[in-house]
Amino acid sequence: MSDVTKILDELAAGSVTSESLVIQCFQTIKSKNDDIFAFVRTYEDEAMAAAKASDARRNEGKPLSRIDGLPIAIKDNFSYQDHVTSSGSNILKNYEAPFDATVVAKLKEAGADIIGQTNMDEFAMGSSTENSAFGVTKNPFDATRVAGGSSGGAAAAVATDMAPLSFGSDTGGSIRQPAAFCGVVGLKPTYGAVSRYGLHALASSLDQIGPLASSVDGVEIGYEAIQGFDPLDSTSKKAESVPVKEHYTIGVPKQFMAEGTDSRILNALNKTLDKLEAAGHTIKRDIDLQILEQSVAIYYIILPAEASANLARYDGIRFGSHGNDVIDSRSQGFGPEVKRRIMLGTYALSAGYADKFYKRAQSARAKLTQELLEVLESVDVLIGPVVPELPFKIGAKQSDPLAMYLSDIYTIPVNLAGLPGLTMPVTTTEEDGVQLPIALQIIGRPWSEKQLFSVGRIIEHNKGAS
Ligand code: GLN
């Protein structure tokens, strides 16, 4: 299956039907999902019915949305009415959502064909999808490696052509990191740009839903379909617009070239910057943002604090009944990483410690946000790596949570500051006889999504040139 824009052109030209696209997706799912495990649940009959309805609308000349008839996948933490929505957790394995998340409602209304729900780390806690209660998603480039996480299924579904467009959530990198590991494009939008209503909350001040596709254009189409003010989400905001330019000033914080980052990733970054410079863009390589070094420490106080409060609702009474009581339900229903974060968060918020940890992290977050926003007044965008390393082996970090957390070093600042971040593959490199993808991240000021797409397209066009 090809790229979203090509598919939409073919649908418009009548050379393919939505029904044929759904058939094709399910052929791929049947041949690959058992190995890759991108989807936890698929809905062939429902997707076929949606496709036929879209084809009928098209044949009758009815008004069509941009993504009418496009097969899409949603992450297992988007409330999907009358469907099990389990956030990769045993505690919700039988939970059917009684309503649609705003994003799901928008996608349905736009006439997209929802083909299934994708695998994820339990409650979106993780960077490898190994924390899913239902199984590990494999990296499409090398099945002995992780697909990244927490939206590993969403990224692998696009990378393997099971779906041309998928939607994930990103709290500290969960769209961008798996997109990077699977060689696809992913966007974490500006905080408040996409409704969080009906998204299972991990850390409400950080969570955002965003698209993954095989091209920047595809991601832009996905973003346009889901963004917009929603009165049902109290943190939703009205969009502003940051104009697209012909030439950009691009900043590279020194801290984005941190020691320990794989040299092949830094080489790819430098090559891309050189090409951008040759194409007439201004590169500022001397940006010093020392506070970025604190990002992981800040995030791993704020995230567990918010998560421990958000996950209190899974008490075995309102949600997630297991065993005989609350303790049983939570001890049997949650996996080890979720328990670890609930304990960390409860500790960080407990009497006597809240000032020492939580409030301190909040003030450091405010400082980080302010410094990033200041830098983004002197440059249009920042560019850097997405992850300091190539996709790692399944199991490699399971016994070392800190090593896992450190892999979020370049993605976390974007969430802490509420900025948009676009990640895209730029090249591949060989390791152990297989080609693995290398990606870069473009970060902008709030509401600069259009600029990110524009810079992303420039990078896509210059990819081959050397
Ligand atoms: N890997 C990060 C974490 O474990 C990010 C998760 C996310 O963005 N949902 O918290």
Walkthrough of the structure:
The chain is an alpha/beta fold and 466 residues long. Helices cover 39% and strands 16% of the residues. The chain is built from 15 helices and 13 strands. It has helices at residues 4-13, 18-36, 44-59, 102-109, 152-159, 176-182, 216-226, 263-278, 295-310, 326-333, 336-349, 355-378, 401-406, 412-416, 449-462, and strands at residues 39-42, 71-75, 113-118, 138-139, 142-146, 165-170, 185-188, 208-213, 249-253, 282-287, 381-385, 421-431, 434-444. The strands form 2 sheets. It has an 11-stranded mixed β-sheet with strand order 1-3-2-6-8-7-12-13-11-9-10, with helices on both faces. Strand 4 (138-139) and strand 5 (142-146) form a beta hairpin. Helix 2 packs antiparallel against helix 3. The longest helix is centred in the C-terminal third of the chain and has 24 residues, at 355-378. It is globular, with a radius of gyration of 21 Å. The model has no long low-confidence stretch (mean pLDDT 95). Bound molecules: glutamine. Residues 124-127, 150, 170-174, 202, 303, 408 line the site of glutamine.
Key terms for this structure?
466 residues; alpha/beta; two-stranded antiparallel ribbon; 39% helix; 16% strand; binds glutamine
